[in-house]
Amino acid sequence: MKPERKNNPPSREPAKGPSKAGPSSGTAANQPLAETEPTAGKAQAPMWLIVLFGVLFYWAQLYLDNYAGGFNPQVYSPYRSYQEVSAANPKSGPEALIAKGEALYGLYCVACHQANGLGTPGQFPPLAGSEWVVPPNPARTIRILLHGPTGPFKVRDVDWNPPGTMPPFGSAFPPEEVDGNIAAILSFIRQGWGNKAPPVLPEQVKAVREETSSRTSPWTMSELLKIPDTQ
Question: Is the pLDDT of residue 9 over 70?
């Protein structure tokens, strides 16, 4: 018997030697890219953006004017100014009298003598720094408010001859309010715009009113100058 032959497959060894890289090996793709310096360009801002910015800026100004309270830390919501805060706080004595006088001045006096107390040039004299306002004795100014002035007056070395007659405040208010209202107005103008004169009490107004109860005509400057301006 012949021995059986085993058909073993021939062994294959891997080819030895360096491998050659083909053109698609990716070696170039792995190399870092060259860095370039950034450059700034110019472009015109769109018109709608400029308009929007202007509208927002205008709105912000209005908001600050209405609600910032002049950047005063004493102003808080719901008040918009320090004047509103001050008016809302309770007052007594001279402070209450002056606050009342300020409100009455705005109703009856501001049209002629102006909010700054400087009057109307060529027509109505100033109250700020007026020698008729600040004397210690308010007897002259009480008479002016009770019955009104007439004719030419000299105020701060300037001759004034108002085109109209100042209305007498003695008949402008209800009888029970005359003394208090006139005292309040005088107290305000004697303390406002840098004036430094004591407040006027309702009792002082009452005393002058009763003393001059028969008076029916306005006062002239010469008549008032006869009345002492000291206590």
Answer: no
